[in-house]
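Histidine ammonia-lyase
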Amino acid sequence: MPIKENTLILDGYTLTLEELMKAGTDLSIKVEIDDKNWPKIRDCRDLVDKWANEERCIYGVNTSCGGLVDHLLPKERDNDFQKNLVRSVTTQVGEPFEDTLVRKFMIARANSLCRGFSGIKEKNLRIYLDMINNHVFPVIPRKGSLGTSGDLGPLGCIASVAFGEWKAKYNGKVMPGKEAMEAAGVELMFLNAKEGLSLINGTSGMVGLACTVITEAKNTLKNSDIIAAFAIETLMGRINPFDVRVHAQKYHPGQYATAMNLTKLLTGSDLAIDEQELSLTLQAVLKKHEGIAVADIPVEDAYSIRCTPQFVGPTKEAVAHAEEVLLRELNSSNDNPLIFTEWDTFIHNGHFHGQPISFAMDCLGIAMINLGVVSDRRIDRFMDEHHSTGLPPFLCKGDTGVRMGLMGGQFMTTSLVAENRTLAIPASIQSITSTADFQDIVSFGLIAGRKARKIVENTNHILSFELMCAAQAADLRGIEKLSPAGKIMHAAVRETLPYLDHDKVYIDHMEELKARIESGEFVEKVEKEIGELLIVHEKE
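Tokens:
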């Protein structure tokens, strides 16, 4: 459901990635559950209580879990067991996730629980919402999740705070969980049969992270097209290879979208070359019949310019596919067992398994590496006077040799391309058996998400230097010749650093440009001028 009156209403079926990102980031947005969902939530819990009283043998209700699944438990110990279950899996280590990401985990979990298949009590689910709305942020270290049986460790950090243990941040201060709940005025949960399992046995941690990665990747993709166009025109590349009439003959939706974007971004440029006009110029040379001649400008561009749509398009399609997968997962019941009130039955299952997310994140991460590769290749053309159509070596005009120009920036970009390649090793195929062979095939979905996010971040660093190079080249070529989009980008860069007519340390400038890329500022400015940029093209 759309966010209305600063409230996000969850129904378990219609939450979008955009809504999750907005509500996760904007702490003023209140999160509620649709009134229509509460009867099924109550009916589901009633069934669990009925079966618990009848002592029907159900996993997590009156059995232990994991490698102790064969241990049958008496009803009077259900609270002890549910709390011990949460305590035992809360074993994350490392630097904690940021508060807004924790909030996304919690919203995603609430959206799954409110579908009414998990058996949590209405009171406890309302407490969960109170934690979200009163800004109690459980501390969740980022390493240690298997991504199978869900994100047990990350979600265990949340659940343990809910009954007054572990640690949470409230009003910017980390404190014991019970103190944080009391300070926020939120009642503590009392867990009965299956409730601890319902809180931790799902994919909501990796879902929240993956949705964030997808959102950040889409922003990077749009920035990549903008910066590619800026680089192409300042390298005096050709516009004709991006003609959509060409791309209709080999239609891939990501490729076609990139060609459309580049055509719009390069419209109005007096630097980008029309190859039809170039052909006429070279025809005049040929007609002189003076033997073999060498043209000042080559007839075709290198692949890193000409094949940008073909190279970047598959990355866009990988991101679009990941978004489809995550949208399904976000609006799913992903714990075990599920309670079906309509059939008065329960079914043990493996919905907690994170393989769809892990695989999608691995594919997204691998695909995003290509953006850095092609960006670094265009950077190399800026550096090399033999490949830049008249630009000075390393974009250094004046005192060359004493000055080194922008040579060193490519050290960083080439290094990060290599680092990204090391991050391309898939997490989704690294299964290692655990829990006395009970969890004998695992997804490592949270690892895949963390790796993909690092790849996106590194790519933004690479793009920041390409942007610097294009702005430097624009000053050398003449900014009056730029396209409208190019002029916007040149002016934006010059807000961060001036034209470099002397050598200096520009690390802080690259960091600021990278932060501005991540903020979406450049996309907003350019789209306001030329219209929306596409991730994938949808055929009419």
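DSSP finds 20 helices and nine strands in the chain.
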